[in-house]
Amino acid sequence: MGLWDIDKIEYVGREKGPQEGLAFHYYDADKVVAGKKMKDWLRFGVAWWHTFNQELVDPFGTGTAQRPYYKYTDPMDQALAKVDYAFELFTKLGVEYFCFHDRDIAPEGDTLRETNANLDKVVDKIEENMKATGVKLLWNTSSLFTNPRFVSGAATSPFADIYAYAAGQLKKSLEIGKRLGAENYVFWGGREGYENLWNTEMKREQDHIAAFFHMCADYAKEIGMDAQFLIEPKPKEPTLHQYDFDAATAINFLRTYDLTDVFKLNLEGNHANLAGHTYQHEIRVAREAGFLGSLDANQGDKLIGWDMDEFPTDLYETVAVMWEVLAAGSIGPRGGLNFDAKPRRTSFTPEDLFRAHIAGMDSYAAGLLVAAKMHEDHYIEDLQEARYSSFDSGIGATVEDGTATLASLAEYAIDKPQSELIAATKSDHLESVKATINNYIIDALAEA
Ligand code: XUL
Ligand code: CO
């Protein structure tokens, strides 16, 4: 049974009935869907910080998590032991990628030099395990928000010593990413924003962080680290306002500071909701602008306005996400679905960690199956094509081919009576569209 006292999780399909919690019902890694294996569409990743470090605290209570490695009380012993537990969990779940912050895998020393030495010891062990298991690094990142030195940000801190320290941390993280063959490198600006605008020079802070990103890109190039750089937008929490508010804001920042060649976006469901968007909206914005990089797969709660980081189980949302991914052809050039998610505080057993990942993986596999069927039938494509067909010829075509002018359109419209204009519009039948999507969910999963 190994360290976790749990057998390898197998795909049982639906033969065991809907209540079998420790098995995959829809995620069949090698099954070919829309021309690719499920595992290659989904590229699941485990988030080290939640899965191995999350104690399941909330603002009112201490941790409830029960974890077998808590028996190691020395921080470095525990960090090294966790590597064994981590790789066994990856292989038992059949997850081929993982993600971590520098701070997740090794404790800090008093100086950056000491901290880097701690990191090296754990990275040695991670590298050995990656070689032995074939599990790969989807992305690594640097925590520039946990330690009190980052109280007012890192690359937007008003304190130059802190900026310099953050740069030192980043240098080491990029070296680790290169060593472990990271597919991507993520920048989440946890405290890169402000608590109060009256004491903040917003443009100066953004100039600073843009310079920081350019230095990172230059150093990655210098050492031959070829991971895709990703910005992860989030509007707020922990700060009142974060500069990478949402996909559109982050893209504007990248364009303003000439960083579009280096960066794409890592989009997260719960972050989208905090910005007042659906997850699908954020992915659509990034996809259509050519910035879809990777996905942090989680969900929020309709009733609570915080970053809940729930494991994704909302089928309607996984269908929408996978519809966008199929339209894009992949989750970005080298992206995947990282479970930036934690079990609820009331799901505290080690087995719950497995159950939670299974729930997320099955929900995304089901979403893929439904979205693939919708694409196969061209349901949404046909619906959208019909909706805009008046731009395919006549006056509409003059808009799209650039020959229209305000005068030519006014001339066309000047004598049209209201009845003719109303006749030019069509009902969207939106309720039927929503019901049809429900039918796709029910039918595609019944056939699976
Ligand atoms: C925080 C969050 C981070 C990033 C990586 O809300 O999503 O864990 O994914 O720093
Ligand atoms: Co995230």
UniProtKB/TrEMBL annotation:
Enumerate the Pfam families for this protein: AP_endonuc_2
In this chain the Xylose isomerase-like TIM barrel domain maps to 105-287
Question: What EC number(s) is this enzyme filed under?
Answer: 5.3.1.5
Q: Name one GO biological process term.
A: D-xylose metabolic process
Q: Which residues bind Mg(2+) 2?
A: 268, 271, 307, 309
Coiled-coil annotated spans = none
The record describes how the cofactor is bound as: Binds 2 magnesium ions per subunit.
Report the GO terms under cellular component. Answer: cytoplasm
Task: Indicate yes or no for the key word rRNA-binding.
Answer: no
**Residues engaged in binding Mg(2+) 1:** 232, 268, 296, 340
| Record-annotated active site | 101, 104
Recorded catalytic reaction(s): these are: alpha-D-xylose = alpha-D-xylulofuranose
Keyword list (alphabetical) reads:
Carbohydrate metabolism, Cytoplasm, Isomerase, Magnesium, Metal-binding, Xylose metabolism
Q: Where in the cell is it found?
A: Cytoplasm
Needed cofactors, names only, are: Mg(2+)
Q: In the record, what terms sit under GO molecular function?
A: magnesium ion binding; xylose isomerase activity
Q: Which family does it belong to?
A: Belongs to the xylose isomerase family.
Subunit notes for this chain?
Homotetramer.
- Tell me which NCBIfam families the record gives: PRK05474.1 (NF003998), xylose_isom_A (TIGR02630)
* Entry protein name: Xylose isomerase
